[in-house]
Amino acid sequence: MFKKILKSYDYSIIAVYILLCLFGLVMIYSSSMVMAVQWYEYPADFFYQNQKLNLLAAFTVFLFFAVFPYKAFRNKKFLIVMTIISVLGLFAVSVLGHVTNNAQSWIQVGARKVQPSEFVKISVIIYLSAVYANKQRYIDQLNKGVFPPIIYLVFVCFLIKIEPDNGTAAITLLIGLMIIICSGMRLKTIIKLIMMGVLAASLLAPFVILKLDKFFTAGNMKRISGFLDPFGTAGNEGFQLVNSYLAIGSGGLKGLGLGQSIQKMGYLPEAHTDFIMAVIAEELGVFGVGFVVLGLGYIVLRGFYVGIRSRDPFGSMLAIGIAGMIGIQTFINLGGMSGLIPITGVPLPFISYGGSSIVVLSIAMGILTNVAMFRKYDEKFKTKKTTPEPKLESSPLNYRNETKFRNRSKLNI
Q1: 103-111: which pairs have CB atoms within 8 A and are 24 or more residues apart?
Q2: How confident is the model over 134-154, as pLDDT tens digits?
Q3: What global pTM score does this model have?
């Protein structure tokens, strides 16, 4: 059985994950060495050494969650404890939070900082997936099946928003909406939710406009003005975006060479975190950017494939939620550094510097790997003597069709 389990792992996902992490480690050293010395008077390899420790912790949690059965997370007691800890962590930020880049999103734990909102993303994925998997029989009943998880989702997004961390709040909300859409609800129910959302947004819009300064800080407004007119505000709000353009434009097809970036010499702020892709483009050109985009794209598409093929509704929504989280976060990061959307301060998955980010992503990858393993194991090695009647415990995307098939079979009998 142990050999069968080992054969069932999707080693392509594991290989791409490790390659991206190691590539990111190299680029963190290249993009941060000048800033570490000039800005902070640290050793040139300060951020590189820190990220090595982060990766050690990340690979450890990845291995644990890759072998730990994901179905255990469906336990009600675990879900209650997890949600309470998540909410308490967000509340703790408002009291003990450490301010960085105008956002009070971190808690100092010894010599390191922890960002609770990063861990909330994976807890939202687990919670929504488990709750909607348990509600498959009455998934279309608004009061009983739909609204309770949505209330929790909106509440934690609000707590993240007031830190303020608009980027992480947007990612968390979009992840939740993706899981809701893929939960097995009828199209009619989803349309009702959309109409309710539009109505709620229409009612709140005048209040938001009147209290715009309360919802968007001065830093948020500067990012928006820098996005709308980067070259007109190049000396202030648009400084980071303009230097990102210069880095991207300087790289060309082949790049200037590893370690040869000019923009990282104090011109491009946050070169090793939010804007690390600009340095990759400058030093390694289209080939470096293509390697990262293709790697991330493969993980996202493979995650969706696992989710669609999984027969377990919980595993299906877990895989889709994790793939969606990585895809959404990648789009927001690349969109910000290329001027497609306003800058949000969201790190690039597996590549940017950051302990909380890489640990949470590794937990997510471990769970995705475990879901993929069980899906493949069930398909290849679980033999069945007779063709069973379709079970209720199946992918939420196929649940409706299987129920109809069962009802028709009973009528024919």
Answers
A1: 103/163, 103/164, 103/165, 103/345, 104/163, 105/163, 105/165, 105/168
A2: 888 888 887 777 888 888 999
A3: 0.87
